[in-house]
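User: My notes are a mess, but here's the protein and pyridoxal-5'-phosphate's SMILES. Can you give me a structure?
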Amino acid sequence: MSHYTIDPAVSDALAGFSLPDKLGFGVVLAPVMYSVEWADGRWGQGSLLPYGPIQIAPGARALHYGEFIFEGMKAYRAGTPWPNLFRPLDNCRRLALSAERMAMPAVPEALFLEAVDAVAGAMAPFVPTGSGRSLYLRPFLFGTEPGYMLRNSQTFRFMVIANPVESYASGPMKVAIERRDVRAAVGGIGVAKAAANYAASLRASNAALARGYAVALWLDAAEHRYIQELSGMNVFAVIGGALHTPELDGAILPGITRDSVIALARHRGYQVHERPMAIDQLLAQIGSGECSEVFACGTAAIVAPIGALGDADGRDHVPAKVDVVAAELREALLAIQERRAPDPFGWTRDVAPPPADAPWARPAA
Ligand SMILES: Cc1ncc(COP(=O)(O)O)c(C=O)c1O
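Assistant: No problem, the inputs look usable. Here's the predicted complex:
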């Protein structure tokens, strides 16, 4: 028996769903979602529902004060009958850290797993197979209590929605160094996966896109000197054959892929240095050839090559190599995620089978 209720309309929603050939990233919506509410200091009973609009009070603090945090994670089924999740407990822990910073209640581990397992389990037959394809899961928590007083909500809602996705990769990215706007400051909420950080990044993202770049590269708030991360990915450089990545300074999001890349690279014999990385020094090292390659990593793109770093003066700094170490690490990580390779780190975890009383999913053949 499940601890969550299953809306009777879920069976029809699943029966009426089929995977289109072209999935894109975030375009195709899973027909189910999970929802649970927090009130009077505790979590209620969750439910699995057909995907659809929700009601929210127009005065809810999530809308007015940005009381909204989220996670992004993937379930894979390439070559396996039943889907598995990649490091779900790390997403749960990061959501708890985000919640702590934002004065929101933590989602207990059992509830978090119930929610992602409910959605991924119901979607099991529709987790796309084929390397690089997966079910992207988006857990999110937001304050629902209306009111203008500047304190946190007393009511919250935790939900999980999902999207069958294909590989996010679209060749080497050109990134635009953002020298004016600031995304996150030490002591602020950069360490949290809070919607407000993304709001702070959108003006620069638009400007980058308008100039033909894929995404903004952020610098530290105090001196505008040190590399932080991209708007949705962490950054690595290959310098003298070793990997270098900005240290977690209290403003950078502690990426789970970043942590995986560090562990995997060390396991494969690379030296990895986490340190403050000055942008101007990195550009000089790209110019001299000492820095041979730059890449980014995150759940969506896994490991993505960076083809050029565009500066505010219009100059593009182009590393000598593109997608060499990045390709090696992407393939090694994806092979673990897709269970084509042993998982010495214990990163993958089976999605729990649907409850016995669930009328829909059976493991796909
Ligand atoms: C700002 C930011 N940095 C880094 C990452 C990478 O984190 P992860 O590897 O946990 O997906 C993400 C994506 O979630 C992000 O939004």
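Helices lie at 9-15, 61-64, 88-101, 109-122, 195-210, 256-267, 279-288, 325-337.
User: Great, I'll file this with my notes.
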